[in-house]
Amino acid sequence: MLLSLVVLAVGAASTLATHTSNWAVLVSTSRFWFNYRHLSNTLSLYRTVKRLGIPDSQILLLLPDDMACNPRNAFPGTVYSNADRRMDLYGENVEVDYRGYEVTVENFIRLLTDRWDEGVPAGKRLGTDEGSNILIYMTGHGGSEFLKFQDSEEISSWDLADAFSQMREKKRYNEMLFMIDTCQANTLYRQFYASGMIATGSSEEDESSYSHHADNDVGVAVIDRWTYYVLDFLETQVTGPTSEKTLGDLFDSYDIRKIHSNPGVRWDLFPGGEAAGRSRRVVDFFGNVQSVEVQGNRTKTELWREDIAGLRGLIAEYEERAEHQERNQTKTYTVTAAVGAKISTCENSQTSRVKAMNIRDEIDWRKQVGGITVIGGLAAIWFLGPMFLS
Amino acid sequence: MLSNGVSQKCKNDPKEYWAGLGFLCVIMASSEDVGNDDDTEQKSTQPEEAKKSANKPGIATTAKKQPPPEKPEAVWLRTKVILSFWAVVVFLGLPVWWQTTSIYRARLPIQQMLEWSEGTACQPVLPLEIWVVSPGLVCEDARHVVQIAQEVLDTMNTFPVQPIRIRLAKSRPINDSKGQPFAEDPACFLEDYDPQSRHPALHLHLVPGEDATELQLSFDPHSARADLIYGEVSTRALGSGAASTVYNIFAEEQAGLAYKLAAQDNSNTAARYLESVPEDIRSAITARENRALKYASTYHLTFSLFTPAGSPSSWAIESALETHIQPWTSAFSIISNFSINSQIQPYSAYSPSIHPFQDSEANQTLLRRQDLSAFINAAEWPLSPSIGADGPTINFVLYVPSPSEIPLTIESSDGGSSWLIPQWGGVTILNPPLHTNELTGQPSVPRHLDLDTLHPAFETFTSQLLSLLGLPTTPQPQMTTTTTRRPPSPTAPSPAPLRLATLTRLRTLSLHLLTRSTLTSLAHLTTSLPSIPIPHRVASLVSASLSDLDRTCSSLHASRWGEALGHATRAWQDSEKAFFEKSMVGQVYFPDEHKVAVYLPLLGPVGVPLLLGLAREVARYFARFRSWRARGTGASG
């Protein structure tokens, strides 16, 4: 009985778990020149996921500052993550989706939960569905269970956990890899509770994350240690989109002597736990699923052509007949009229909704009047009080 | 003594007291004894104090000068001050604090929303109605055939979501293959139907054929009609033949419905049914579902011509669309609307990461298969420009390579030059015939692509469009396919009207299940996140969505497909709007220590004097009350 239940559950899971697309959200959260390394961390990851095949339309890059165009940059228009300056990360082909003051906690939460105004372009949205694997990489300055955004606000582990659980609830991802490089990074995924996630961070609680090395000509540190060694693995071991390296290999490559902090991994939210998580390929998150279907084998094209030629004829006749039917059947008109009426009621309700919003505006106005009255009244009492008293 | 100085100043200058130092005064007044009004009083009280302190030996020498007793009006003033401060706190401060910090949460019909997922609400059933028309049979026989067919079908059809009912219907006059109208027995008056009540999924015509030895099936290409031609057969054979015909026609649709139920609703019965479906049909359905875009009421089709050089700079796009695409978009208009636009982008090469290689043997350039997914130059090609537009964009990219690369094809694909990107669109490489440029003598690409050159590419686009829209394309499992109207073709799909009706039902069910799951998610969300605000708009959208769900379900039960799709679409749109309401981004989480950190600096310096002042005042009133009672009892006793 129990066995059959298990078999059923596995069967259901196998029909569900189809991985159809890959998305990456790469976030740097700090401004200013001395945080150069956070932007180069993020850009390095951006280069890597692009190299492994995630198209730009499925990478959301959030950079709060523009190091390439910073006046202090001795190499204008470029960003390097290594003192050898062999690879310009900024290059000619970088698509930043959120820039400068757009990188806020609110926008990040909106991005994850997809709660936007109408009219926010598709390129700025996370258009994932139940078949998407998401890579989230964050870097910046953080502390115990929080990460600072742009010196003015912070996101906490609870905020992230709630956002991810909402994504899970709406089936907005299949599997997710959360990576964070900041001080006390491992505390940031402590509160997560949405399933299907693997989380990894650079340092334990009360532990700093360190930068790797500085470029004396750039004048600041250019990359963080943990990110450096993760990239090192990705560049040297994961050579292409067909690489068979697994997440287990990636996490085993962490060397505390090199990283100078204790990286952590969290498996318990992943279905199947550590065993299943370790066997996931790195390119399941860093690369793009190969889903292109080649068509146009010549003989098949011939068949298609014949088929479509036939179908086109059918459609023409079908249309003609539909027109004919429409002319004959007056009843269809009543149906459409009924549907039309329903649509119009919908519109009515919408207009009433708009009105409701206006009422809200009025309430604001009333509140203001109320506030002014109260303050005026208080001022009056303040000045008139002594008269009564005297 | 600062406090005395302040108090004195307060007493001496009431205006300044009120205007400037009121707050400080009340603190001081409540924490310090008010007194030292004037020197005379001090002097008058001094001897008493001295006497009192003299009574206590030892302290007498260090006795502090005691303040004089307060005047009753000073006490009363202090009470009024404290009360007025408390009045402001209670009647203004607390309500304002409450108003500004509380989160508005409209009440949602959680129970109703959860009922849909728990299965206690209406479960979708999509009964199919088959109308059998048998002009060649006498009334008795026809009824018998239908009865047998129903019995056989009931044993074959094990899928509870889609029961199939066969009914005998009065036919419209039909013609046989020679154009002669069949004779119909007017006396055989069959069950009377209101054509508006149920939409028949199929008209099955039982046609007698003179030379037919066995049952033959032929489809009418432009309506939901199939002819079953029979020769010399018994009514039983005819009945069971009709039943298996009907079953075969709808077997794939049932598998598709079961797939949706299993995937979206975790339905165990559907999963079990799906297990019994042949493997090839199941994998075809899985592939189809993964390929197709999510349902939208409007799709935008963008046809783009990209070329790395300046030519071709024009193409016969209008006539190509008219011939290939528009028949389909108008046929699909019962399900979705389409907007079509096109663009030509010269000097746009493919992505720089792509490196095709020369195949010198066949004298052609080949693209690596693993490069195909990165072929689209997402950074530079202006694709999917649907900013703010409602609905997804399906992209069709026609790429004309530079003359040096022609012909450009895909490696190991036998000359294939087109591919489909699931849920995104299609790409076709067009290798036009080259001609020699008169000026340079170099081979060059024609400046204008005419319709004949575009035909193959647009045929591919059409097939890609159909797969992206999820139209069932697998060939019909047919028992005998000797068609009379069309030449036999090995992969003949069933006629478009039937497939479109199937797609309508699949889409309706899918939307219905999606709405249910969205509403359930929203219900879970509201209960699990107490800090998320829920505006009134969400509540009204949810109730609209719930009522449309009900209507969808009843329309499905009544087999009114178009109506059901309309309701399902509205329910889905409302539920999505409710879930993705933009003001439902919760306040950023504050741990309790943060709250303390915010409130303590405020509550410390302000709250302590307020509370202490009140406490002293209350204590004093108690003391007075007690002394008054003591005096009262003393008087009586």
From TrEMBL, chain A:
Gene3D superfamilies: 3.40.50.1460. The chain crosses the membrane at residues 369-389. One of its GO terms (cellular component) is GPI-anchor transamidase complex. InterPro entries: GPI_transamidase, Peptidase_C13. The active site is at H141, C183 (nucleophile). Pathway: Glycolipid biosynthesis; glycosylphosphatidylinositol-anchor biosynthesis. The keyword NADP does not apply. The keyword Membrane applies. GO terms for molecular function: GPI-anchor transamidase activity. Keywords: GPI-anchor biosynthesis, Membrane, Signal, Transmembrane, Transmembrane helix. One of its GO terms (biological process) is GPI anchor biosynthetic process. Residues 1-17 form the signal peptide. Belongs to the peptidase C13 family. This is Glycosylphosphatidylinositol anchor biosynthesis. It comes from Endocarpon pusillum. The gene is GPI8.
UniProtKB/TrEMBL annotation, chain B:
The chain crosses the membrane at residues 81-98. InterPro entries: PtdIno-glycan_biosynth_class_S (IPR019540). It comes from the Eukaryota. Residues 34-71, 472-496 are annotated as: Disordered. GO terms for biological process: attachment of GPI anchor to protein; GPI anchor biosynthetic process. It is found in: Endoplasmic reticulum membrane. Residues 487-496 have a biased composition (Pro residues). Belongs to the PIGS family. This is GPI transamidase component PIG-S. It comes from Endocarpon pusillum.
